[in-house]
Specification:
Elements (H helix, E strand, L loop, with lengths): L3 E12 L2 E12 L3 E5 L6 H9 L6 E6 L2 E2 L4 H6 L1 E4 L11 H11 L4 H14 L15 H13 L5 E5 L7 H15 L3 E6 L2 H7 L2 E6 L2 E7 H5 L5 H9 L5
Length: 242
Amino acid sequence: MNTAMIESVGLTKYYGDFTAVDNVTFRVDKGEVVAFLGPNGAGKSTTMKLLTGYLAPSRGTARIAGHDMSSDRLNGAAKLGYLPENGPLYPDMTPRSLLRFFAQARGLGKLKSEERIKKVIELCALESVVEKPIGKLSRGFRQRVGMAHVLLHEPDVLIMDEPTAGLDPNQIHDVRETVKRIGQEKTILLSTHILQEVEAVASRVLFINEGRLVFDGTIEDFRAGTQDLDQKFRELTRMAYA
């Protein structure tokens, strides 16, 4: 039986009279790389913040590796790496000094810290920039530094919000290759509104629109009836195009 690493059970979030997330239920099993797709403003980022415990749900339950993120957040967070769309980095630090800082903050011993820093630098292909100030790096490299940071404590689960937003085609390719490498060892939920991202990195699609989950299935199921992913996107968002 597959092990559920990410579980959303009836997640709902209200802001006054506005429903940002409406009764969203799904699970991501161990070893899956799942694309969380939808138009801007559909509720992707809010759902991810609910899953990570950053926001408290109005109703429903979020679990990471079996840990309820409302009542057992610390244990859930130990299993989780979360990369928000614009993750905070310290521009005056180098990637190596940043990783050492966070390793110390997480209580990793010196030997373990250096071992993990070496591993994530290799995994995220940062060797060429590891001693350069982060503020001088391209956006693509900064995204990879962010990935290295969230991988430092060896989480079983990664949640990434729009990791290729604002990147040029070369940077997008590099970040996607990094996600593929990471996905060989981790369970990943990847938020995106870029259709090419789905085929490039994921085996399954969750599609959210107006706060509601409107599709959950394989890439093949998502493509069913059309070879045009743009058309499928329009169908699921019920948008009319001239």
